[in-house]
Amino acid sequence: MKNTYFRTRRGGFTLVETLLAIGLVGVLLSLFLTVFVPARGNVRQALARQEAERITNILRTELDTLKGNERAEESAVNSTPQKFITPFDKAFYWMQRSAKPETSIVIFSYRADMTGDVRKDGTFPPLVAKKNVPTANSQLVTIACPMDDPIHSKEIKDAVGPVYLVCMTELEQQGNGSFKAAEKPGVIRGAKTPENFVIEEYNTIRGAIVFYRADFYIMSPPNPARYKNKPWKRLGRPAFSANLSFRR
Asked: How far apart are CA 172 and CA 178, in angstroms?
C-alpha cells in the first residue's frame, strides 16, 4: 500500500509578500508626511502670528491708556517722563526709553493673586508659589511696562511664558512718501518733549503723529540685570516686528 504525504505550508510571509508590505507602508508613510508635516508647519505659523498680534495689540492698547498712577495733576501744564496729561505724551516718553534695552518696555504675563490688595496701577500682586497652577483665586494677566518699573520690575523673573523686550525706532517720512528707520532707537526727530512735537501747516497746528517700528525680542534669561549696559545689537534678531504709530 502506497502512503501519500501532504505538505502543509508553515505560517509566515514569503519574501515577496514582505517586500510588498514594506513598500505599501513606505507609500502610506510618504503620503502621511506629505500631508501632516506641512499642516503642522502651518499650525505653528498661525500660532506664531496670533501671538505676535496679541503682543502687538497689548503694546498698542497700553500706549493708548493712562492708568490712575500715571495721570498728571489737573493743574499740570506739561507732562513729565512719569506723569502724563495725554496718552500721546505717555507714548512719546515711553518710546524714548528704547534708547537703551535696560530702560525699554517689557511685555510679559504673570498669575495674579486676586485675593491680594489692588495696587496703585490697578493690578493685583503676583502669585509666586503656584504661578503655573490655575486656581479659582488667580488670573493670568499680561502687562506692558518699563523694565525699571518700580512695581513690576521684580516680577519679570516670575513671568509665565516668554518675556518680550520692545525696541521702538522712529520711521522718518521721506520726500517721496516712503519711510526710513532712524539711525538710533528711542530718538524722535524734531522734539525732545511731546509738547514741542507738532506739525504746522498754513500757520495752523493740525496735531502730531509718530510712526515707528516696534521690534520684539525675547528676553533669555528674563533677568533685567543681564541687560544693563547691553546695546541692542548684542540681542541678535527680533522674534517679530510691526510698524505702528501713535497720534495726538
From this structure: 8
